[in-house]
Amino acid sequence: MSSALYKQSTNFTHSTGSFLQSAPVELTTVSGYQEFLKKQEKKNYEIQTVLSEDKSHGYVLKDGEVIANIIGEAKDYLLDLAGQA
What we know:
Elements: H1 10-22, E1 25-27, H2 30-42, E2 47-51, E3 58-62, E4 65-70, H3 72-81
Helix pairs in contact: 2-3
Keywords: Cytoplasm, Nucleus, Phosphoprotein
Subcellular location: Cytoplasm; Nucleus
């Protein structure tokens, strides 16, 4: 005989899925950054890429909300484009 130690309601699953869709993604490679931008353009989203003041990371914004964090190689690529590497 088996007994459930934990039961997950369907509301929890839906809520978690909704949260994961709204959580910012992390972009670390140039190809990942470029692919992400292409997907946003296909959806006709108006997006903006912004570097932090200390240039330690960047963000992709949609309607003023962070939808992606940019670090690593992708951040270095943006600094090169801006002539600030």
